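Friendly challenge for the regulars: who can give me the structure tokens for this chain first? No prize, just bragging rights.
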Amino acid sequence: MADTDGVYHRTTLPPGKMQPKVWERQKQITRETLPPQFVELVEETTKPLVQVITDVISPQNEFCGGKVVLIGDALAGFRPHIAASTSQAASDAMKLADMLEGKIGREQWREESMRFARVVQERGLQMGERSQFGRHPLSGHIRDRNTASKM
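First reply, four minutes later:
Bragging rights claimed.
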């Protein structure tokens, strides 16, 4: 991503550094695809920024024979729009405590924390797909994914 000074950024374009013609194009896409409430938010943004959104999840939550465990963001990095990282960290910590205290077995802990991470990550993907390419019941400008991808 090149900013207004021609400097390239890999993961985050700082606030106010988006090239004006790119920002105008994004606002046009917003007007064509998102519900009015989101259009208003975007239109009123004076210093837009861009952050790369990634989906990461470990294939397992336990390594080295149980000597290393992953919980919270170390286990799965959720997309920001899902707003679930704090819930994930709290849930993982409580389940880990239950396992360490003998209230649940190790297998149950592994299964439950991985299931939570997978379900929430999938919901984040679904929400992202819907917001970028899906149908919005509140939008007056409904388009399908094929139309959006041609833009």
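Residues 106-133 form the longest helix (28 residues). The two ends are 19 Å apart (CA to CA). Your move, everyone else.
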